[in-house]
């Protein structure tokens, strides 16, 4: 499973990339706004921090402007993946940009049928939003499971990118459901490494080493 980090915070991305933990980055307009920086500058800087795809989202909603914004974003760096919303215009723009060789991440997916359309439109990634479904008492993981079955039934190569991940359990369940990628907020990604028994065990080993005067 690939891990993307879901942030526009370049310090966080740098530190996680140095730890060898990430395969790419996703952003959205809310995350770019939170960074307080110019979008092209921040996307260019992120693209230098990873060789994997960096999703950059259009802000237009009509086909023509989405395609022209997508082309501008794609010119920032060769590893930009253009993010388009799952609307009819977004799907049409996905077909146009994908046919021209641009990697497209179709976002704001909340159902298996939407994911089927994105695959037919040639998307490189489909982003089902688990957390936002869970917020409405709908099991987001069921949607990932359904998409996996449908894509496997027909041999679609679109990668399932589990998005809107809020906790470690979402990561585990996405992996079990066969998502190709999980995009994870930095705090959740760091949290995956921690376990109280690891801390307790390490403290005991270090105490014994100190008592015995072990030096390496
Ligand atoms: C990533 O591609 C999505 O935009 C992001 O995961 C959405 O997460 P949220 O529902 O926590 O805002």
TrEMBL record:
Family note: Belongs to the transaldolase family. Type 3B subfamily.
Catalytic residues (positions): 83 (schiff-base intermediate with substrate)
Protein name: Probable transaldolase
Keywords, comma-separated and alphabetical: Cytoplasm, Pentose shunt, Schiff base, Transferase
Enzyme Commission number, as recorded: 2.2.1.2
Top-rank lineage group of the source organism: Bacteria
Pfam families: TAL_FSA
Main location: cytoplasm
Gene3D superfamilies xref list: Aldolase class I
CDD domains: Transaldolase_FSA (cd00956)
InterPro entries tied to this protein: Aldolase_TIM, TAL/FSA, Transaldolase_3B, Transaldolase_3B/F6P_aldolase, Transaldolase_AS, TSA/FSA_arc/bac
GO function term, MF aspect, one: transaldolase activity
């Amino acid at each position: 499973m690939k891990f993307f980090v879901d942030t526009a915070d370049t310090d966080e991305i740098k530190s996680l990339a140095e730890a060898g933990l990430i395969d790419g980055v996703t952003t959205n307009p809310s995350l770019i706004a939170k960074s307080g920086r110019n979008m092209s500058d921040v996307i260019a800087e992120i693209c230098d921090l990873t060789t994997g795809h960096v999703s950059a989202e259009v802000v237009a909603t009509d086909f023509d402007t989405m395609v022209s914004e997508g082309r501008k974003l794609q010119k920032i760096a060769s590893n930009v993946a253009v993010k388009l919303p799952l609307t009819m215009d977004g799907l049409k723009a996905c077909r146009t940009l994908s046919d021209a060789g641009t990697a497209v991440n179709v976002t704001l997916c909340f159902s298996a049928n939407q994911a089927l359309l994105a695959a037919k439109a040639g998307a490189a990634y489909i982003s089902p939003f688990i957390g936002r479904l869970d917020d409405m008492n709908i099991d987001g993981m069921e949607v990932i499971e359904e998409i996996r079955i449908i894509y496997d039934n027909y041999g679609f190569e679109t990668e399932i990118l589990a998005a809107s991940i809020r906790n470690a359990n979402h990561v585990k369940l996405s992996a079990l459901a066969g998502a190709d990628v999980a995009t994870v907020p930095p705090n959740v990604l760091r949290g995956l490494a921690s376990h109280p028994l690891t801390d307790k065990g390490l403290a005991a080993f270090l105490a014994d080493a100190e008592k015995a005067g072990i030096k390496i």
